[in-house]
Design brief:
Elements: H1 20-29, H2 53-86, E1 93-100, E2 107-113, E3 116-122, E4 128-133, E5 139-144, E6 150-156, E7 161-167, E8 175-177, H3 180-191, H4 193-206, H5 213-232, H6 237-247, H7 253-262, H8 265-268, H9 274-286, E9 296-298, E10 304-306, E11 314-320, H10 331-341, E12 345-351, H11 356-363, E13 371-374, E14 394-399, E15 404-407, H12 411-422
Parallel strand pairs: 1-7, 11-12, 12-13
Antiparallel strand pairs: 1-4, 2-3, 2-5, 5-6, 7-8, 9-10, 11-14, 14-15
Helix pairs in contact: 4-5, 5-6
């Protein structure tokens, strides 16, 4: 049973007989109908056969919807403006972060723009540093401690907003946000932090004189780590960065050339790969195609044999020595290659042992299917000396014309070169 606004008289037939003024007054005080300016005819039922209430509700809801939608639209516009204000400027890059344990001493950021070399002196405030500039192309920024020794390196271009954080005395443990390239580079640093940290100390110790034995040992380990990384990340700009930063000019040119040859051509065409592209062009000017030198070696039956690269689509050579510990570690790879390619690949391991008797005792005790040969005079043998072998085991891959396409790389990388030659 319904009652009128002003009276407690019962409603007859379920319809309240409310006058026009009373209805208007009720509507004004109703939270739901507030603001409705529609006109009612006398005698209209508030609820019943004429049911005027539902159409008015629909009208009011539409009006309210328009009101709230306009409010939501305004809020969204403000949000977009705020996001734009917080995001990076497409005409510049910015670098900021907190590097602890710098002792209040300045940090230098050195990079090259089209206008010349820029050196930003950053004076940390509670470890916080920040600077910005503009470069449409991807460029490296090298950070230095106050004593001018290297701290870390990042890559930036316009639109980037890079954030650095971590212990300033732990350069390989720093964290970065803002670009996938820098994240991947810093991930490599963190995963190999132990090796890189000790290698850096030994490198600094060797800077003023000849390399220490420890530095040579660590450099070989680092070469293997980088070669393995490049083999697994051929299209990554980080591969080019690692070869350029750690290997180029510090190791055998043939190793660098082989690693660069593994990399994706499109990646090398970019800014990060440019130094390696120039290096290969320079190397090609210095020397024409590297061809396998004249090889003459001894078989198990004490006969002399010469290498003929034309016998197969590819030739895989493995230099080793029975008297050198660990130099047989590539035998599973030789076995796999022989079984996989059969006669398409000529597989030969060459012993550099000083005594053929030591070599024979080893090779006659196994059932290897690939050719096993001994180079008389070892490292000084004709042809071997020209290969500049600096460690054992040492792999070389050549094509059917005898041109060397790769050398000094681990098996995973060599496998890719062999595939190219066998399945062009």
């Amino acid at each position: 049973m319904l009652f009128s606004k002003e009276s407690s008289a019962p409603v007859s037939n379920g319809v309240a007989n409310i006058g026009e003024l009373e209805r208007s007054e009720w509507i004004k005080r109703s939270p739901l109908l507030s603001g409705f300016s529609g006109k009612f005819e006398p005698g209209d039922g508030f609820w019943g056969d004429k049911v005027w209430f539902l159409p008015q509700i629909e009208y009011i809801c539409k009006k309210r919807k328009r009101f709230y939608m306009s409010k939501i639209g305004a809020i969204l516009c403000i949000g977009v403006l705020l996001l734009c204000g917080c995001g990076g400027n497409s005409n510049e890059f910015s670098v900021e972060g907190t590097l602890n344990n710098l002792g209040g001493r300045p940090v230098y950021a050195v990079y090259r723009l089209e206008s010349g070399i820029v050196i930003d002196t950053l004076r940390p405030q509670n470890g916080y540093i920040a600077f910005k500039n503009s470069s449409p192309a991807l460029i490296p920024i090298q950070f230095y401690y106050s004593d001018k020794t290297p701290l870390t390196q990042i890559y930036v271009q316009n639109g980037d907003r890079i954030e650095l954080s971590g212990d300033g005395q732990d350069p390989f443990g720093l964290k970065v946000k803002g670009s996938s390239l820098n994240k991947e580079l810093f991930k490599f640093n963190q995963e190999n932090k132990g090796l890189l940290s000790v290698w850096l100390v030994e490198r600094n110790a060797s800077a003023s004189g000849s390399p220490t034995p420890r530095y040579r040992e660590l450099s070989e380990k680092l070469q293997e780590v980088i070669a393995t990384y490049v083999g697994k990340h051929r299209d990554s700009p980080v591969s080019a960065i690692l070869v350029n930063d750690y290997l180029l000019g510090n190791v055998d040119e043939a190793l660098c050339d082989s690693l660069v040859g593994l990399m994706d051509k499109d990646m090398l065409a970019g800014a990060v790969g440019e130094p390696l592209t120039r290096y290969r062009e320079f190397e090609s000017e210095l020397k024409s195609d590297t061809v396998l030198p004249y090889f003459s070696w001894v078989t198990v039956a004490d006969t002399t044999e010469r290498l003929n690269a034309r016998r197969a689509k590819a030739t895989l050579l493995c230099f080793w020595a029975a008297e050198t510990a660990g130099s047989r570690q590539y035998e599973p790879f030789l076995r796999e290659t022989t079984a996989r390619y059969d006669t398409a690949v000529q597989v030969v391991d060459i012993s550099l042992d000083r005594d053929s008797a030591v070599w024979k005792r080893v090779v006659t005790a196994d059932s290897a299917r690939w050719a096993r040969r001994w180079a008389k005079d070892g490292y000084l043998a004709a042809g071997v000396k020209n290969m500049h072998i600096h460690k054992l085991p040492y792999l070389v891959v050549a094509d059917s014309a005898g041109r060397v396409v790769a050398r000094g790389l681990p098996p995973d990388s060599m496998r890719q070169y062999i595939d190219r030659l066998v399945k062009p």
